[in-house]
Amino acid sequence: MGVNLEYAGREYPPTAPYVVGREHLRDFARAVGADHPAHHDVEAARALGHPDVVAPPTFAVVIAQRAEAQLIEDPAAGIDFSRVVHAEERFTHHRPLHAGDEVVTVLHVDSITERAGLAMVTTRCELAAADGARLATVVSTLAVRGADA
Amino acid sequence: MSARPAIGDLEVGQQIGARTVTVTRAHLVHYAGASGDRNPIHWNERFAREVGLPGVIAHGMFTMGQAVNVVTDWTGDPGAIVDYGVRFSRPVPVPDPGEALVEVTGVVGAIDAEAGTVRVDLTVTFEGAKVLAKAQAVVRL
């Protein structure tokens, strides 16, 4: 079964809030070699005007991929994860994410195209704070090989 | 922590930083746990070969996350990075035992003095070939 093209244009309901934990943020920063003090030291982050330790620029993927699972783990969407390659990723930060943020995410399936046995699936996650303020937009494109590609 | 660069002092083409990223299987296991991306192609040699890869490969998101550190260090504030996008053009195989070395260089790609933003273009290579394409970060100075 191939990728279900009818999923293009879908918008999912907002997720349950994801709380950005300080220790998780620090551990993610260590995992990507982000040793800037603003990721680790609350006082250093506050000195730069942030309320708490700041997330590295790609941390939002942790939140986005949970939202994307609504599509990827839906058998009717037809995305065989063993045939998936990550093609593109982009983060737009409307304001820096920091520890303590409660993030609600809305997943959009922006496009699904298929050509020569390769499906390109582009999703967009809109991350917002509990008060509705926009935090980040995460756009991700997956390439899914067909069964005989 | 370095002071924020002044936008008026910058020129397109100017190098803002460079570093070599050492990648071992231990780094990938750490990233898998911290990110929640536990796909076995990033830690299980047998599984990776079964799905047609040359062996265990680094998470594209690991490489993307590492590469932007040259930008963070240059700006002096991670919150200054307002946009960051890449295309994943080639995988980075990570041997065991051993390590993969990924080279990262950043240059000023464009300056928008009115908006107060600078685009940094990153060149990210493994064994001389680009592993990220169109890797660009926009920073607000």
UniProtKB/TrEMBL annotation, chain A:
Domain FAS1-like dehydratase: 9-137
Pfam short name (any one): FAS1_DH_region
HAMAP family reported for this sequence: UPF0336
UniProt record similarity statement: Belongs to the UPF0336 family.
Protein's UniProt name: UPF0336 protein AFE02nite_26120
Gene source species: Actinotalea fermentans
Top-level taxonomy: Bacteria, Bacillati, Actinomycetota, Actinomycetes, Micrococcales
Automatic annotation (TrEMBL), chain B:
Highest rank taxon of the organism: Bacteria
Alphabetical GO biological process terms: fatty acid biosynthetic process
GO cellular component, one term: fatty acid synthase complex
Pfam families assigned: MaoC_dehydratas
CDD domains registered for this protein in UniProt: SAV4209_like
UniProt xrefs under InterPro entries: Fatty_acid_synthase, HotDog_dom_sf, MaoC-like_dom
GO MF term set: fatty acid synthase activity
Start and end residues of each MaoC-like domain: 12-123
Family the UniProt entry places it in: Belongs to the enoyl-CoA hydratase/isomerase family.
Name this protein carries in UniProt: MaoC family dehydratase
Provenance organism: Actinotalea fermentans
Lineage, opening ranks: Bacteria, Bacillati, Actinomycetota, Actinomycetes, Micrococcales
